[in-house]
Amino acid sequence: MSYRAKNNSFGQLASGLSAGATSMTLQAGQGDRFPVIANPDYTFVTLEDAAGNREIVKVTARNAASDVMTIVRAQEGTVARGWSAGDVVELRMTASLVETAMAHPAQTTGAHAASAISVTPTGSLASTNVQAALAELDNEKADDFDVLEINRGGSGADTRHGALAAFGVEASEATILTLINATTDIGAAAANNILLTTGATSITGFAAAAAGVWRKVRMATGGVTLVHSTTFVLPGASDIVTAANDCFEAFYTGSAWIVRNYQKADGSPLRSGFGGSVTVSSPYNDWNNAANTKPGPCPNLLLGSDPNGPGMAEYFYVLVFEYSTKNGSGNLVQRAIPYSIQSSNATCYMRTRYGGVWSAWIPDISYSKIVNTLGYTPANPADAATDHNHNSIYVSVNMTHGAIGSLCFASGNVTTTAGNTAAGANLAPVGIAFSDPEGYGTAASQDRGSALTGTWRCLGNSNYASGTRYLPATLWQRIL
Q1: CA angle 144, 147, 152 (to 5 degrees)
Q2: Is residue 389 packed enough to be buried (19+ CB in 10 Å), middle (13-18) or exposed (0-12)?
Q3: Model pTM?
Q4: What digits encode the pLDDT tens for the residues 429-441?
Q5: How far apart are CA 211 and CA 228, in angstroms?
Q6: Cis before 283? omega within 30
Q7: Residue 249 maps to a domain
Q8: How does strand 407-412 pair with strand 473-478?
Q9: Which of 55, 96, 405, 461 has the greatest number of C-beta atoms within 10 Å?
Q10: Which helix (H) or strand (E) is 98 found in, with range?
């Protein structure tokens, strides 16, 4: 039974209405201003005449396109009386409607009972009302606390009480299952949480299950390699070497198990930022085992004198760049960056590993090379890292004349100031000859070479005046 309403519902009686009548007729075409009413639905309308007399009636039936209403008289304390043609009929808010609406939220029985609210069975739920569905979910939650231990590669039942207790479950609560088949059948487990132990060194996948099955897995032991394939899809599309208490979710699509949300027990990322594997092996100070992120006992810095290092007894940061596989098995570039630029041998080194074979270390960037080449030593050696003027000069003196970045003392018919640019076609290398009969050092002539190419930036001043004998000369640097 539902109350029906419609906005702006009003009309007038087509004919008189006696006090005992149980139906009334509105003027032609006015019926559809009111809602259609069919049992057990209803609505309330109010009758009113010019003198202000009113009666509330309950409408229990009105068909579409009909002006006739079936009514129950004298509602909500009003009195049935006779009415005349033309008297007003309106759908108005009444006291009982307001009181019922306000009281409904406070009700705790009837329609508010969980058992009275219907639901459509879906998924694994078979219940048809909320109360029964809650009971189902509660039972399923209890089942999730059951833990299945699968001992892969072993034989006989094994309670593993200590391991189960560490997982927060007593042995008596768990279903124990031993499997020796080629792939671990976690899909057949009655529980969602799996504590996985195995005597094997690798897992190539899980047995096929119903599509949509998912399991939460925790590794009881480490050192097991999960092998990526098209039917056992791992994060990063590469193999994973597990550690004890690593956790992940496995979802079966109907044709493949998808491993997701892999969390390493030590909190480190599964893949490092540059693609090198974060799973390193002992000895941890061996440069061949180093990667960007070093979990566990692996140090943050390595000595150059450690095994397979560049050689000197200085501390270095390590960066590893890897192509393709991103799991530590591919071709690598390894760089050693000095911990302190003030050390006696503040040099960056690099080497490569191709086809599994490491190359020799070669020096990359050397602070001492900059200082020794120029004879320039800043007050604080660390300033060399930010002293761009001296670094630029070092680059220039090692370049071929005319190359981008090189410097040249040149002259030309150019008027400009430091920082501005000019075309090389307007400049030429120059030497200056002096005539100094009286000791004043007056420039007498210029020896000019061939025109330059490219674009050059002025590092001094060049003030050319048309008609003068000599062209202004200053220092230029090629930028394009």
Answers
A1: 135
A2: exposed
A3: 0.33
A4: 988 766 555 555 4
A5: 20
A6: yes
A7: yes
A8: antiparallel
A9: 55
A10: helix 95-103
